[in-house]
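Record type: monomer structure entry
Structure origin: computed from sequence
Chain ID: A
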Amino acid sequence: MRILQINPIVGHSSTGRAVSELDRYFRQQGHESFVAAMSGYGVDNIYFIGSSFDRKVHASLSRITGLEAHFSTGATKKLIKYIENIKPDVIRLGIAHSNYINIFMLLDYIAKKDIPTCLVLNDCWYFTGKCMHFTTNKCYKWKESCQGCKYYPKFSLNNKQDDFNKNSVTKVLPTLFFNNSQYMLKKKKEYFERVPRLGVVGVSDWLTRTAKESILKSAKIIKRIYNWIDLKEFYPRENREEIKEKYNLKGKYIILGVASVWIESKGLSSWLKLAEEIDEDSRVVLVGTLEGQNFPERFVHINQTRDVQELAEIYSMADVFMTFSMEETFGKASAEALACGTPVICYNSTANPELVGEGCGKVVPVGDFNSILSALNEIKQKPKSFYSDYCINYAQNNFKFENSAEEYLKIFKELTETDNEKN
């Protein structure tokens, strides 16, 4: 089978690592594997889409018009020529909203050539007007038309895009003049329905159920395939106290949180409040990029690390992992913590609860800070070893790479073998 993966990045970050890991696996299983991305490394057959200039122009036009994944027409035409040359049997299509392709040109070509396509949902963008998440706002207009979107922010020339991302919980990109959410949703529906053999993969049960209520519900296949964890890297380290000593935390009860960047949508204010509530022998430890200096006394910040071994050591030293996030399509940090034998406390929202198996921690009502404290106190009554076996077994049974990779191959096979008539 000739497999093409399309994604903004390859080799780094969550979705980029997934692409490179699948590429290696597909080759090991005797398939021909190709990757198209705007940037990346670690894969032999990478076709690079567009240029940095193309992406800057695309981003600028998106801000002006409110249209996303509508531009980069020249880069997309060249991508289509590349697809014509390699003639893939199936396409695994990742993230499109990164200012690098015209998704509608690509879908039109895929539909005309009847190329089986597996659409991977890493967030909610593909089935909403333009939102990557919608739960915090309790907005379900994507089920109908996204008409009259009131959550779409205006872009100010006086503010940097980075400032918007740090403070926003709406998860949509700002625009200068136009909204166009309703138009975007209508156009997505039209173009996805043109694709005769469309498969949809959600990375959690919650996301997959949601997709079945959306414009993607007519796809031939809609299935959940969990993101995976590298279980050869993420496993419990035995020298927990030595690791704690490395961070000047020896003898402390560690409540851990991990994120790329700490912003309000990741519950930053709740973490700071928690640090004020915990006892003298406990510490809140946050790993990731964080701005500010005036933190509570029982709060410890560790800079973001790309060293997998270091991260696994941090998960292992923790007594409990916690997330205040209310919008997770998967929750990879929670899964990594479980693989390292650390129980998890989370809110009962989106994909969070399905990652906490029986005996693996506590799921509490959304926004109930007192329940967080109660769950923390309950877990603290028992040694970490009480939970570790449950956590490790759950991670191994649900987040093993080979199992997820095989599920993708099964979907590819089903799509390529099915008849080419639309549902």
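Annotation 1: The first strand starts at residue 2 and ends at 6.
Annotation 2: The chain has two domains: 2-228+401-417, 240-398.
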